[in-house]
Amino acid sequence: MLKPNHPLFIILAFIILFTGLTAASAQAPQVLTLADFDLRGPVQQCIVTTDYGREEYTFDRKGRLVKAVTRYSDNDYDVTYYKLKDTLLVEQRDEVYRDEIFDEQTSIARFFSRDTTRGMRITEKIFSYDKEFREQNEYHFDLKQRLTRIISADQDGVDETILTYEQNGGGQTVIYTLNDNLQKTTRTYKRPSAQGDTVKVVYSKEYQDSIPLQATENIYNLQGQRLVENQFGFRKSDSSLVPVKKTIYQYGDQGLLSAVITQQGKSEKKVSYIYQLDGSSYHNWIREIITPANTYTSRKLTYFKASPAPKKE
Asked: Has this prediction a pTM greater than 0.85?
């Protein structure tokens, strides 16, 4: 199971975001940083070794991801380059190599432009490397910089996702509609926990033909760590949502995930995580062992050297 802070999980989420947006995943292009990979300090490169292959991530001095490589074997790998300007992603190139041969058909380039004449709009244009147009997405924002509208166009037509924001009961609800059809609602609010501290709750409900399909409740502490995930399914007999699975996340030293407990029906399963740190003052982990399966993930980190002090005149 990939954890939410696992590097591959982040990359997969990023790929899903840009390949076939739906209301359920609607959001604007984002710049990935060290925090998304559970990294701290001036990390320049992180090489992750797992049983499926190897991931290589390169960051700039501001901690932003500028290159990602997924190696399935010596001859098969994918490379993604991120070109940034100020705080914005302006270009992303996804290059595919099979048998060490560059594949122009499946490799794509994404170009992003920003227009602030009336509110803010980010336009994404997607082309294959053989110069075939694939898709165009427009992301519209309101004066509060909230995403309000996504227009996606390709050879099959145009889709429009509308995000509507409502304030209620001390929280906020976002309503997602795709081509005027209700797809999802997400309510976010804060409440006291059983321990007396404050937690953030994100409750999302997905629909099909305006009928609830499933729901997920995620509970976070104020440091952004997910504590509990409750999943619900739709029961047709009485048109209600019923609990399906509960996942509890526990954390140890340095805020690292220490255990995941899954409760489903009468069964309970616990997976524990043990870390070896790199010995630096940043306390990054370089080896993660997952029990009881006894699988592991290794990371090799390279830090930027300190910039030389300016010479005195």
From this structure: no
